[in-house]
Amino acid sequence: MRRLVFFFSFSLYLLILFSCRDEMSTAGGKWVESALRNIRTDTCTVTLSTILSDSLATSGDSICQIGRHNSSFWGDIQGTFYTEYDVSALSVDEEANYQFDSITCRLYVSGNYLGDTLSGPQRIYLHQLTENLELSNSYLYTTSSVPYDPTPLTSFSFTPHPGQPNEAISFRLPDELGKEWLNLLQTDDDKMSSQEKFRLYFKGLAFVPDAAGTCINGFQVNDSSLCIRLHYHKITESSVEQSLTFTPSSTLRFTRIEYNRSNTVLSELQSGTDNALPSGKTDHQAYLQGMTGLYVKIEFPHLNNLLWEGDMVSIESATLQLYPVKGTHGDLYPLPETLVLYTANENDVTEDVVTDLLGTSVQDGSLVTDEMDPETTYYSFDITSFLQSNLGAIGYNRKNLKLMLPDDLFFTTVKGVVFGDMQHETSPVKLVLMYKVY
User: Fold this and answer.
1) Contacts of 3 (CB under 8 A, 6+ apart)
2) Where are the beta strands (DSSP E) in 86-130?
3) 3-state helix, strand, coil in the chain (%, to 5)
4) Nearest Cα to 36, choosing from 45, 44, 27?
5) How many CB atoms lie within 10 A of CB 197?
6) What is the pLDDT of residues 365-377, one digit of tens each?
7) 20 to 30 Å CA-CA from 345: which of 93, 105, 202, 420?
8) Are 175 and 100 in contact (CB under 8 A)?
């Protein structure tokens, strides 16, 4: 009976031990009597899960997303932009006549996109809001909603050109709107006397993509982009062309993101850190995407098993390599150039960003790309300090990692990455670990 118990205990020890290293990692150490062993392994267990944020604040952002795209792994996504406009003022010359020319809107693309930009022109409809935008807890969110007139004020189409940021797109609004505004300004109408009066008269616009769209595109939002210009001539002894600019509000603007993942492996995903979806339930893949709120939780459940290997164990280096899944990136789905790792406690509360060994700069993932062999494309993070501080930690002191887009992408783009876990056939995550055993 004692032999049976001893055999079971010893077998359990071997099972746990080898979950964090392979049998050959000692490089002949069992034939050499030594108090020190240097071990390299890439079999230490790494687990990935996908987490969905409740909502993201997008009010006041300098980039918006407008369009629609459907794919087998991201699902059906739509981006709609809402904005109030700041009133402009006209200094009226009683001796002059004013002649309306046109009223236009101009947009500048930001350069980021998701989907097929070569499928043809994309159409966007402009609808007048029927209610004013109002902040909630000082913000507007990707889940905020404001009703608008179902009949479009106008629409325009454009052809996306990837890699050409700052490309300008201009189109006309209905002349009736421009003539009405110029007349109100000339007559010093109360509707144009202040922002509060103007926003009650003209509540703003919703930029709504066509339902048949194949691409989501980013646009700049500033004093030059997504603004409305009223063009007119001031006629005295001569005729002078002039214009007034109505700019998007600096706070009362936001991008609304709608998505449907019912036909994807993420169909069961619910928002909240308590609802992390393990990669084993999503085809051994974990998902990260801006504006839809997806990010990846990374854990090392058997890290402390290293302590069983000797009287003292020290981690010398640790490199985490994350491989985007083949077929989920390319021309239609460009990979973000930078990613960010954060440390989080057992309640998944973010604590700090992962920096380099010197602690002087934030790591960006060191993206390695190979256009000839996409399977060798990967992001690399040095997590030596993180694992050193977590070796032996238990309970509340045990930390995990969060992998996200940097803020300038997470809150303003729909860029994303799909990563394979350790059981993925073509794109398994790796932890390359060097440690010493005394």
Assistant:
1) none
2) 97-115, 122-128
3) 15, 40, 45
4) 27
5) 13
6) 999 987 677 668 9
7) 420
8) yes
